[in-house]
Write a structure and sequence with these properties.
Helix content: 25-40%
Radius of gyration: 17 Å
Number of helices: 8
Oligomer: single chain
Number of strands: 7
Length: 195
Amino acid sequence: MLKIILASKSKVRKKILEENKIKFSVIPSNVDETSIKKSLLSEGASPEIISKNLAEVKANKVSQKVNNSLVIGADSVIDLSGELISKPNNRKEAMDILKKLNGKTHYLISSICISKNGSMTWNFTDRASLKMKNHSNKELDEYLNKISDNDLYAYNVYQIESHGKHLFSEINGDENTIMGLPILKIKEYIENTKC
């Protein structure tokens, strides 16, 4: 049976795999996401293409180091009318992002790439749409104060699985996609590959 490796330090992705009884180990890819994003944006790449590319780079990087393993690379981005919204680097950026999304509909795009022996064998991208309610700056500030720095920088500005759900008036899409790992498609692929 092929070993499964998650090329990510994400606690949420780890939890989703565990909840679905998938045995795996973790080897973070540690790719420089910022420079890859900058390069792709300068070429006019869409948020979806950026998400796909990052997932593939992460999976391939780890996959080159391990033989006969399925390496899962994942990436999630926010698409606001074609504009890529990245994870915040500080609380001011987090507040700016929340203000930008406030009262608007945006897409959360999650891409998965599975690589074996250094090259991609499968990928999948899913998107969910989320409409944020209109919040006052005070409400957004109160929300941010509930979130630890670790969670804020690891999982983007809202955690749909905890405090973040109340920010939205409408959520359409798979909750696992929103959390960064469309698990049903991954399980399907893994089950079909174990032979």
